[in-house]
Amino acid sequence: MSINWGTFWPRIIEATWDTLVMVGFSLLFAALIGIPLGIALVVTRKGHLMEQQAVFNILNGIVNIFRSIPFIILMVAIIPFTRVIVGTSIGTAAAIVPLVVFAAPYIARLIESSLLEVEPGVIEAAEAMGATPWQIVFQILIPEALSSIVLNITIATVGLVGASAMAGAVGGGGLGDLAIAYGYQRFETSVMIVTVIILVVMVQGMQTFGNRFSKSIRRR
């Protein structure tokens, strides 16, 4: 039985909205965890502002462990934790939990990479002028790396779009769930094509906005 697009479009729109909600909230919570974690990975490393090798080794190990787990396996592995947090392991709200766990270490690495791009001479000059480590972090490191941080957060957002679609494989809701339930299981190729087009447009829009915003704040 073929899809009646007249009545099916509201379902497409709802799934698109669910995907945007998943990505938006996941990015927010992942950034709240990942950005401080990324800063800590930089300032506690050997020879940096607040060198603490033991702290760095622990944080570095935790990030590496979570980044090495494929998302689809991570989703299944933390189902008990997801149920504790949101009371269910199915649906849009449930998908946000593994998306945050997946994205936070990734964002931490991206932030670390951006901050390490700042010229050491700039930091040394600030230290010579008597700036405290926290002043250097918030007044030198982050402002100098802001353009790169925006680009990397854009990359993380695009990655979350792909992961949110993958969440549909285990009933995560959104466009991925729609594509699997109708496009794959019911052999409705047209539904698969439409969901892919929407995801491509979504990613293109996010990437374009991120590129332009990064360019507009780049320090010359």
Folded structure, characterized:
This protein is an all-alpha fold and 220 residues long. The longest helix is centred in the first third of the chain and has 39 residues, at 5-43. It has 9 helices and no strands. 80% of the residues lie in helices and 0% in strands. It has one domain (5-217): MetI-like (MetI-like fold, Orthogonal Bundle). It has helices at 5-43, 53-67, 71-77, 79-86, 92-116, 120-128, 133-166, 174-184, 189-217.
Write the layout of secondary structure elements.
Blueprint: H1 5-43, H2 53-67, H3 71-77, H4 79-86, H5 92-116, H6 120-128, H7 133-166, H8 174-184, H9 189-217
Helix pairs in contact: 1-5, 1-7, 1-8, 2-5, 4-5, 5-7, 6-7, 7-9, 8-9
Family: Belongs to the binding-protein-dependent transport system permease family.
Subcellular location: Cell membrane
InterPro entries: AA_ABC_Transporter_Permease, MetI-like, MetI-like_sf
Mean pLDDT: 87
- For the record, the CATH architecture stands as Orthogonal Bundle
- Overall geometry: elongated
At the third CATH level, what is the topology name?
MetI-like fold
The number of E-state strands comes to 0
| Total domains | 1
**CATH top level assignment:** Mainly Alpha
**Share of β-strand residues:** under 5%
Using the CA coordinates, give the radius of gyration: 20 Å
N-to-C CA distance:
59 Å
Instruction: Give the CATH superfamily.
Output: MetI-like
Quaternary organisation? single chain
Order of helices and strands: HHHHHHHHH
* Low-confidence runs of at least 5 consecutive residues: none
